[in-house]
Amino acid sequence: MKVLKLFGIIFFCGLLSPSQEVLSGLSCAVSPRAMQNVLSDAIIHSGLIHQHLQGLVVPNIMGEGSQLSSPTSITDLHLIKVRVPRLSVVLLPGIGVQLTIGAKLQLRGNCLVGLLSELIDILVEVNITANIKCTNFESGTFQVVTEDCLCILGAIKIKVLSGLLTLSVNELVLRQLTATLPALLCPVVDIVMNLVNIHLLSTLNAVIPVGTAGTIHYQLASIPYTSGKFLGLDLDGVVKQVGGSTIPHDSSPSALPPLMDRLLLLVMRQSFLNAVLSLLLQLPPQTFPCTPDVFSGAGRLREAVWTIAPAGCSACSGTSPLSIKLVLRGNPLILLEENKASVKLSVLIQLFGNHLDGSILNFLLLKADLALNVRVSIVGGRLMLQLALGSTSLSLESSDVGISNISTLKPHCSNLLVETFMPAINGALSMGIPLPKVLRIPLVNVDFQIKAGLIVFLV
User: Fold this and answer.
1) Residue, of 211 and 415, whose pLDDT is higher
2) pTM of the prediction?
3) Apex CA 201: angle with CA 199 and CA 205, to 5°?
């Protein structure tokens, strides 16, 4: 027997297009296939629709009878089983999501025809359509309103123990169920869709800790929009330090790349990544002795410094062995280009000693401008960035002993940074950047593309 369609539900969700002025840190495109999986899990596999249909009680069905038929009454008619064999999704451009579920309802009650009383089972196929509109968008949330709910009954099978059933009883049941089921099922649809809305919004609006540095507050930036190929979502990512101060980032609207045949496309913008990097890379200064147990090239660095020190440097005598202090200067800046990601940051390198009275002698204060290569991956729902030193530009900030030519120090300082500073940087990044669990679509088998100003993740 052909199973009719149940619950053709349309979400009217805002109708924004990707080109409109929505400023956000992240954007998503969700395919119809992914939406079908999401809604199947939320409505069917979770048992939500079954839970709210259980306990459904249908009003008594009464027939007065005639000269050719006995009076009929069907009482205590209740749902004992709901069969929901399939769910499908169609995206309607400029309108929303059309959801279709095929199902059968099995009802049971007591049937009295004349003086004969027995159990009656009714298997009815139903087709419900309803328009679910998204309204009242505010602070990352919106409400759903059910409108124009229509319930149409399909084939009905009726069984009684005796097997004796007149045509008039079939007609009576069809007529009465057609009149009563819409008023029973449409409110269930409304309840279920509001619960699904709350459930799915919780995946878009979430505060996620980033180690002990702070949090990222992902929040829906605007009401969803639809095309014929995807459901579009714009998310804002508010990056906060411990204590509550927000690290600002600017974003420009951009069209989403093609979704192709993937379930989910997630776009992360460069400005948002810069804010998160500023949160993660709040490194305390590193101070350590210039000795081989800390830095393998310590001896060569000391020798290079003494070589360029002015002859007869009186201040150089009477000081403790050379020490090194590394300080991150300013905020890191990530640059996303076609098929390439790099990070630019500056480090102050201080080479100093201590006089016998405890005062500091600054042999050299150098600024190293670093260009770092970035390797991108996804591990456990987090964006992982691993940095490697690409190039170093060295400049002199100051010297208490009159050193002016530092050209010979570049290779030694580069080795110093590779052995001491880069492990600290990658250690701070090792916790990764938590990604939003958009509609709980698993981030597995993720491919990524690096484009100008964007990282694009494809699931």
Assistant:
1) 415
2) 0.83
3) 125
Residue type, 76: D
Query: Which three-class secondary structure string do you get for 138-203?
Result: ECCEEEEEEEEEEEEEEEEEEEECCCCCCHHHHHHHHHHHHHHHHHHHHHHHHHHHHHHHHHHHHH
Interval 63-89: pLDDT, tens: 876 655 568 888 999 999 998 778 878
406 neighbors 396 (Cβ within 8 angstroms)? yes
Would you list the DSSP string of 214-236?
A: EEEEEEE-S--EE-SS-EEEEEE
CA nearest 155: which of 117, 103, 201, 120? 103
Q: φ, ψ for residue 438 (rounded to 5)?
A: -60, 115
pLDDT at 12 over 50: no
CB-CB neighbours of 351 under 10 Å = 23
pLDDT in tens, 257-286: 888 899 999 999 999 999 999 999 999 999
Nearest to 57 by CA among 7, 121, 109, 126: 109
**Vertex 246 angle, CA 243 and 203, to 5°:** 95
Q: At 121, give phi and psi (nearest 5°).
A: -115, 135
For residue 410, the tally of other CB atoms under 10 A from its CB is 15
Q: Which of 107, 59, 104 is nearest to 83 (CA)?
A: 104
Q: From the DSSP assignment, how many helices (H) and strands (E) are in the chain?
A: 7, 22
Distance CA 269, CA 221 (A): 14
- In this structure, the strands spanning 231-241 and 340-354 are unpaired
Question: Which own/partner pairs from 51-54 qualify as long-range (CB within 8 Å, at least 24 positions apart)?
Answer: 52/188, 52/191, 52/192, 53/79, 53/82, 53/105, 53/185, 53/188, 54/79, 54/82
Using an 8 Å Cβ cutoff, are 344 and 377 in contact? no
* Beta partners for residue 57, in sequence order: 78
**CA gap 414, 300 in Å, rounded:** 12
Q: What is the dihedral of CA 22, 452, 458, 137, to 10 degrees?
A: -10
Closest C-alpha among 53, 29, 220 to residue 143: 220
Nearest to 438 by CA among 239, 282, 268, 190: 268
Cα torsion 382, 388, 392, 397: sign: positive
For the chain, the residue count is 459
